Amino acid sequence: MLHISLHLVVPLAVVGLFFKKDWKIAYFIMLSTMLVDLDHLLANPIYDPNRCSIGFHPLHQPWFIAFYFILSFYPKTRFIGVGLVIHMVLDAIDCYPISFL
Ligand SMILES: [Zn+2]
After folding, report:
1. 99 has pLDDT over 70
2. Are 14 and 83 in contact (CB under 8 A)?
3. Ligand 1 center to 45 CA (angstroms)
4. Alpha helices (H) along the chain
5. CA of 34 relative to ligand 1 center, distance in Å
6. What is the rounded (10 degree) CA torsion for 64, 66, 70, 72?
7. What's this model's pTM, rounded to 2 decimal places?
8. 35-65 pLDDT per residue, tens
């Protein structure tokens, strides 16, 4: 549950810090980037709390992450890119068994 709440709270914090002017649209787009997790539907089991998503699911591959990073540099795709990068960072936290949270 903590993981999912981070996916809601962290984008909100980023929007509040950097995109105050357009926070509604920015937050909406960033929440929409959670749709990348639809690739989990291809996995079996669909959800496994002990699995590392990065490098496992089709849309969580390193070259896609590089692409999301590039998206965040272009004004038109910035919110999508930033949202996806945040998503990948949060997913990556799950890849380290040392639980500091
Ligand atoms: Zn994910």
Report:
1. no
2. no
3. 14
4. 2-18, 23-32, 62-71, 78-93
5. 7
6. 80
7. 0.89
8. 999 998 899 888 787 788 999 999 999 999 9
